[in-house]
Amino acid sequence: MRAYQNLEETQRGSATWITLNRPQERNAFNPAMIDELTAAVAHAGSNAETGALVPAGAGAGSCVGTDLTWLRGMPSYAHQENVADAPRVSRQGQEGMRPFLEKRPACFAKS
């Protein structure tokens, strides 16, 4: 398994668990977490041992959504920064999971 700053990836039998691990921010998405989640899902999708993906959240909540600190900073971004950031924001939704879900099931659980 790979090491991440904002996630934990564990293999439990044929299931890969990806646990959002920012409990102090109630697992809110920020740019680093989105990048790590995209990489973790791609890694799980390429792992022949993975038969299912189980996303989970550390702490009391699964995920509250987008980190407001990150959103508050967006108005100060230059046009080029917003253009560069747009693909990262779009990956936050279902598109990031689509390549995995086309081949395998996913379920949601509390770790």
Summarize the structure.
By secondary structure, the chain is an alpha+beta fold. It is 35% helix and 16% strand. The chain has four helices and three strands.
Plain-language structure description:
By secondary structure, the chain is α+β, with helices and mostly antiparallel strands. It has a single domain (7-101), classed as 2-enoyl-CoA Hydratase, Chain A, domain 1 (Alpha-Beta Complex). 35% of the residues lie in helices and 16% in strands. The chain contains four helices and three strands. A three-stranded mixed beta sheet has the order 1-2-3, with helices on one face. The model has no long low-confidence stretch (mean pLDDT 78).
Output the CATH topology: 2-enoyl-CoA Hydratase, Chain A, domain 1
Q: What pattern of helices and strands is seen along the backbone?
A: EEHEHHH
Number of strands: 3
Rounded to an integer, what's the Rg over CA atoms? Answer: 14 Å
Distance between the termini: 17 Å
Shape designation: flat
As laid out across the biggest beta sheet, the strand order is 1-2-3
Name the CATH homologous superfamily: 2-enoyl-CoA Hydratase, Chain A, domain 1
What's the CATH class label? Answer: Alpha Beta
Q: Mind telling me which CATH architecture this is?
A: Alpha-Beta Complex
Residues in helix, %: 25-40%
Give the tally of structural domains.
1
Q: Give the strand content.
A: 15-25%
Number of helices: 4
Q: Low-confidence spans: pLDDT under 50, at least 5 residues? A: none
Average pLDDT, all residues: 78
Reported for the largest beta sheet, the result is: 3 strands, mixed
Q: SS-based structural class? A: alpha+beta
